[in-house]
Specification:
By secondary structure, the protein is of the alpha/beta class. It contains 10 helices and 9 strands. The chain has one domain (14-244): Alpha-Beta Complex (Spore Coat Polysaccharide Biosynthesis Protein SpsA, Chain A), CATH 3.90.550.10. The protein is 35% helix and 20% strand. Strands 1, 2, 3, 4, 5, 6, 7, 8 and 9 form a 9-stranded mixed β-sheet that branches. α2 (55-61) links the parallel β2 (42-48) and β3.
Length: 251
Amino acid sequence: MYTKHNEVSPSPLVSIIIATLNAQDTLSACIESIIGQTYKNYEIIIIDGNSTDNTHAVIRNYSKSIAYWESEPDNGVYEALNKGIKKAQGTWLYFLGSDDVLYDKNVLSKIFNDYDTTAIDVIYGNVVFRHSKKKWLGRFDLWKLAQHNICHQAIFFKKSIFSMLGPYDCHYSVLADYEFNFRWIANPRVRRRYIDEIVAVYNETGLSGQQGDKFFLENFTHIKNEAFKQASIVEKMVYKFKALFNIGKSL
């Protein structure tokens, strides 16, 4: 069941969705990074894939701070995130890994108080990798996305984006977020904004760092080609120019 989200505010409600599976060792830090935010108009939604460790005990320990949670077997992280999207009541959605944390206590305030988000559909910034300390990865266009993914934990989506473009495609077990990024970055109707802020500390040794996505790799060329077809003329010109000179293909 839902509990009442945090205090009513003129700032937009942000739904923070966390998919969990046997996350007892990392979930507390993840939640603490949210409830410590100076921005208070958020709700936490946890979709658990039937954990068998003490994840449920951790969730119950934070029950007063969690708007909604459920636990049942699922077909992976993206099915869980799609469930979370349906349950979310916020104008904005953010997906935080159970082994990741928000960068500092002012992350949400910087984004939703310091920037005008009324005419924007997607806001994205940067993350810092937990182990290598590498900052990832600045402003993206379609060409750059064809070389490197935008870290999931760097992006805030208006919930309406998923009505426009559809949910995550669960055929991609590890990189459905990459495929979805092609959908929005190539779509001329999607109003996007890059902000030079660090959003989260990302655990690069998590699911995407440990497992490959064979189906995604098999379909990568098709995904890129479909995105290119729907891109604006300007986006296509930039793509062709950078491809011609191989700009930014390797880091």
